[in-house]
Amino acid sequence: MKRKIIACEVFKPYLEQIFLRLPKEEIDYLEIKQHNHPEILANHLQEKIDVITDVDEILVLYGLCGNAILPLIARTIPIRVLRVHDCAAVLLGSNKAYQERFEGNPFKRYHCFSYGDKEEEYFSKTSPEYRKIADQYGEDNADYVYEMLYDKFSAQVTYIRLGLEGENEQLSRHEPGYYSVIDGHLGMLEKILKNDPDSTDLVLHPNEHFEGVYDYQEVIKTVKNGVL
């Protein structure tokens, strides 16, 4: 099967590790900071998808990511995505591990090697709880609640460690206790690359659209166009 891969830059160092074991593939990366503007990210993804031809499938290594993938359209080529809320679930290795770590925390903050020292990446707006608040009261109000209840200097940040060179140095740049370190797992990312039957993914076909489910199992679904 011939495919084209589009991925968030957050996965680059981890994919490079996986490609030491699997055949290396060419990947078109988008900058991490585009997560800050889901509507713009959706447009950039669609632009890249629309110029791809002569492949059997387009693999988009994104999850819901603040609803950025919901508007995507498969013109003629199926689009495969990760069935997750965001990269934290992927780096933790499963939606179950993600739920155990973050359920009930609408304003989770996490970090990994890819983020470097970008403080603005710590606050994720992709948890099911945050989406419910934002859908009911609007994102401005949800952000205001975050600012009032979760001071960035007191809320501990989850650091997802995957054994890369440089992680210990990155951890040492903050005082002890700033991070809560948890070991991640690259199994989910490797399975989708291998087209494993147990892969946590979802395929969007032409004449379908995505809908968010916002739980910790299904996360997102596809619906035939015109079906209510």
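(ticket continues) Second input and output from the same batch:
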Amino acid sequence: MRTVVFTIVSIAALVAVGAPRLGAQAPKAERPPAQGAPAPTPGQTPPGQAAPQPPPPPPYSYNAEGRRDPFISLLGRGSDPRTAGTRPAGVPGILINEVSLKGIVMDSRGAYAVIQGPDGKTHVIRPGDKLLDGSVKSIVADAVVFSQDVNDPLSLVKQKEIRKTLRQSEETRG
């Protein structure tokens, strides 16, 4: 009787500790697939490995579809010649608003104008010459007409005319 009680107690102790049941098979160790074995399909993960992480979503990009990006400032967009780094030397580096008309010369080859830049230097210009923000459209007897590029993204007008006249002296006013 002692042996029967001892057997029952020992079985109960094994069950409480978590020993494998009698007749149950022990779990098999993971083996790499054999050379001829089929590989796991793309949707499945092999046993014993963690599932792969999905790729991160692509970064957000604004699709303009003909509209301007509302998150980009209209000030200092880089195309404004005044905010550009260095200016070219001479007449191509002068803004139309910085020009002071000093004189106009008419000869058989056409009209020339003498202007003064912001640095105090004088330059000779002819119709068609380019300035930083426009060009010389025409030169008449008492004025120079410039065609200035408009740099306002909200404006429908892309160019405007600016007329710079010679100053009249007090003798010719009277």
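Agent notes: The helical segments are 2-17, 170-173. Residues 2-17 form the longest helix (16 residues). Closing as not reproducible unless the customer responds.
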